[in-house]
Specification:
Metallo-beta-lactamase, Chain A; 7-stranded mixed β-sheet; about 350 residues; alpha/beta; globular
Length: about 350
């Protein structure tokens, strides 16, 4: 049995292997529907949520997350409109964070239904910036940054330099206004309070939603049942300690009841939140120990520790995420004073034990 499968056995999936049909939904609780849409990536799906709502005397739905802007995604939403809204409108579009699979169709849904967007201020501004600039998630600055962390393959660097408009290809626009979600504040949806819980390290200001009355946590990408959330450091914040931010953030969910039903953005709804948080801490503890051992053998760059953190072959798209995560692990040890870093004559940052 694989380690991932063994860890999964410690969680409970109330719906077993049942998944929503394409263009349809599964009702998880009164007024809570689960949608699932396909993505053209290695991570091949995203979970979206419909919450029954009433705003200013109007009955309808709040949508949580939207999928990327893609013809198939729009077609899937059209099927949902026809089959799952009970003849009611979408009243609000709520987005957990700024990554394309979560916010890509917010502009379309908001315009189509004349519905406001709700998300954190930091992620709203980051999304607006990313879909308006040419070199979003690519270009010279990102290539130079990767080169400074040990990427030396000229072909890979050239592809990154010429990767134009990656973000706005998936998020072509953002709504021109929004309502702000803030940590600790509650949003009333369908007469119930959903408390915002901010998370960091994966996105600038990710917002999960917890409803005490329903015993439900919409965890977004902060807690996933099978895979570990990508936690990366990139060129816009090159000194960041993203992994420490992430690990501190997931501990904010520990006060929630053990039987909380977790609705993740990827994977299946599950219970066992406290167990999963401990699994994530254990996973990163073990990876950090491996990185530390590698640095004791010889000074290492982020590229040097990729095979330490990732045992499988990676294509360039996967490598760009993996390299950001390698920097995040090195930076946690560096910020903690366990590693020091030196920039060589070749311009590459290498890390070694501080003592």
């Amino acid at each position: 049995m694989s380690i991932a499968a063994e860890l999964e056995r410690a969680l409970h999936y109330p719906l077993a292997d049942e998944l929503p049909p394409r263009g349809g939904a599964i009702t998880l609780a009164p007024g809570v529907k689960w949608l699932r849409m396909q993505l053209p990536f290695a991570l091949d799906h995203i979970n979206l949520w419909l919450l029954r709502d009433r705003i200013d005397g109007r009955d309808g739905w709040t949508v949580v997350d939207t999928c990327i802007d893609h013809p198939q995604s729009r077609a899937d939403w059209e099927a949902i409109f026809a089959a799952e809204l009970d003849g009611l409108p979408i009243l609000r579009v709520l987005v957990t964070h700024m990554h394309p699979d979560h916010v890509g169709l917010a502009h379309w849904l908001c315009e189509r239904w004349n519905a406001p967007l709700w998300m954190s201020a930091t992620d709203y501004q980051a999304a607006r910036y990313a879909c308006q600039v040419v070199n979003s998630f690519g270009g010279d600055r990102l290539a130079d940054y990767f080169q400074s962390h040990g990427m030396t393959d000229a072909g890979d660097l050239d592809q990154i330099r010429h990767r134009k408009s990656y973000y706005r290809g998936l998020v072509p626009a953002m709504p021109p206004s929004y309502a702000r979600l803030m940590n600790g504040r509650s949003v009333t949806i369908g007469g119930q309070a959903w408390r915002c819980i901010a998370g960091y390290g994966h996105a600038p200001e990710h917002m999960a939603l917890y409803c005490e009355a329903a015993g439900i946590l919409i965890s977004g990408d902060m807690v996933l049942p099978r895979i570990s959330t990508n936690v990366s450091v990139y060129e816009m914040e090159p000194e960041a300690d993203a992994l420490t931010l992430f690990l501190d953030s997931i501990d904010r969910f520990l006060p929630l009841p053990a039987d909380t039903l977790v609705l993740p953005s990827h994977g299946k709804p599950f219970t066992g939140l406290h167990t999963r948080i401990q699994q994530l801490h254990d996973h990163h503890r073990d990876r950090l120990a491996e990185v530390m051992d590698a640095a004791r053998d010889q000074p290492v760059s982020a590229c040097d520790v990729l095979p330490v953190l990732f045992k499988r072959p990676l294509d360039l798209h996967q490598t760009t995420f993996a390299l950001g995560e390698a920097v995040a692990h090195l930076h946690r040890l560096w910020h903690a004073g366990q590693l020091k870093r030196v920039r060589g004559d070749d311009g590459i940052w290498r890390f070694m034990p501080a003592r």
